[in-house]
Amino acid sequence: MDSSIKIHLADDHQVLIDGLSNLLRTVSNFDVVGSSLDGTTVYDDVLSDEADVLILDISMPKKDGIETLKEFKEKQSPCKVIILSSYDDLKIIKEVMKLGAKGYLTKNCAGENIIEAVEAVYQGQEYFSDAIREKIFNTFKDNPKLNQNAVIENPILSPREIEIIILIALEYSGKEISEKLFISSHTVETHRKNLMKKLNIKSTIGLVKYALKNNLINP
C-alpha cells in the first residue's frame, strides 16, 4: 500500500461519490481513503486521510470549491486538486487554475477521464478534459485580446518570448508563427524549447495555463 495513490472525494451527492469510488477502486494502485459532503470539512478531512489527490466539486454546501481551494493554497497543502464541476465557464477555469488546481473535469466526462486525470496530476502534470482544452483554445482564437499592461510588466519573459507563448496558446503551428513573426521555423522551435525550460513546463496546455495565470490574454 505504500505505493498507492490516496484519493479523497468531495461532492455533496453521495451517489456521485459512490460511483466514482467504485470506478477508482478498479485501479490496483488507487486507494479511495475518504470523502466529504460538506465544504467546511474538506481540508481537515484530507489532512486526516493524508490524501495525495483531492477530487473537488465546485458547488459544495456551506463552503464552495473556490473557497476550499483558497484554504489549500493559503495553508500550502501538498495535496493535488482536480476540480470536478458541472460548469465549463472559462472564468471559473481561470480562477481555479490561479488557485493551484492541477486538473479540471466536467461531470459529464468524469467517468471517461478520471483515472487518467488522477495518474497525471499525481505525477506532477496538469490535466484538462478534451472539452475543456478545446474551449480554452477556441476562446483564444475567437477573442485574441492581449492584456498590454501584463505584457509590459512581465518580469520573466522577453517581448519575443511573450509573442511566442501567446501564439502557442492560440494554437498556431510552428510554420504559422514563423510566418507571422517573420522568423525561421527553427528559431520558433528554439524559443519553444527555451520557454519550456525557463518556465519548467512540459506541455502546450502548460503554456496556455501560464498565459492565463499571468493575464497575458484576456478571455
Automatic annotation (TrEMBL):
Name the UniProt record assigns to this protein: Two component transcriptional regulator, LuxR family
Domain Response regulatory: 6-122
One Pfam family of this chain: Response_reg
PANTHER family the record matches: TWO-COMPONENT RESPONSE REGULATOR (PTHR43214)
Keyword terms, alphabetized: DNA-binding, Phosphoprotein
Domain (HTH luxR-type): residue spans on this chain: 150-215
SUPFAM superfamilies, per the entry: C-terminal effector domain of the bipartite response regulators, CheY-like
Modified residues (4-aspartylphosphate): D57
InterPro entries noted in UniProt: CheY-like_superfamily (IPR011006), NreC/VraR/RcsB-like_REC (IPR058245), Sig_transdc_resp-reg_C-effctor (IPR016032), Sig_transdc_resp-reg_receiver (IPR001789), Tscrpt_reg_LuxR_C (IPR000792), WalR-like (IPR039420)
GO molecular function, one term: DNA binding
Organism encoding this protein: Flavobacterium phragmitis
GO biological process per UniProt: phosphorelay signal transduction system; regulation of DNA-templated transcription
